[in-house]
Amino acid sequence: MDCYTCVRTGDPEGLPPRESIAGDEHWRVAHAFGSALPGWLVLLPRRHVTAVAELTDAEAAGLGTWQVRLSRALAEVTGCAKTYVAQFAEAEGFAHVHFHVVPRSPDQPEELRGPRVFGLLGKDAAAAVGPEEMDRLAVRLRAALAAG
């Protein structure tokens, strides 16, 4: 299978903290890679799904709960004013449905608000949040989710 998400989800025990922040039988939470914004999360179904309409009722029931829980944890850990939630799943190799849960800081520049925040995704390694920072945030987010 040529699906990055399915390949990564296949070995959940071998994933670093940034790729397995939280989850349940239907969903896995990871930090987005190539993002210049610390705390940019992706919520991924554990099975291969390419359209929201393909979600089972059980998967759909958990979706809203996860989005709210992640938004609360991000507010606690990053101090964000709100979160943006978006789903496209159109990029080559990333047709697997995934939801972006993006923290918007209180002082985020106007030119990076709303859909323009996607200007912070797809960055090269020099501009992106590093693996150590993603892992550090993952540990803090796990603790906030456990407490909340």
What does this structure look like?
It is a single chain. This protein has 148 residues and is α+β, with helices and mostly antiparallel strands. It has a single domain (4-147), classed as 2-Layer Sandwich (HIT family, subunit A), CATH 3.30.428. The chain is 30% helix and 16% strand. It is built from 3 helices and 5 strands; from the N terminus they run αβββαββα. The chain has helices at 4-9, 57-78, 131-147; strands at 22-23, 27-31, 41-45, 82-87, 99-104. A 5-stranded antiparallel beta sheet has the order 1-2-3-5-4. The longest helix is centred in the middle third of the chain and has 22 residues, at 57-78. The radius of gyration is 14 Å and the shape is globular. It comes from Kitasatospora arboriphila.
Any descriptors?
single chain, alpha+beta, 3 helices, 5 strands
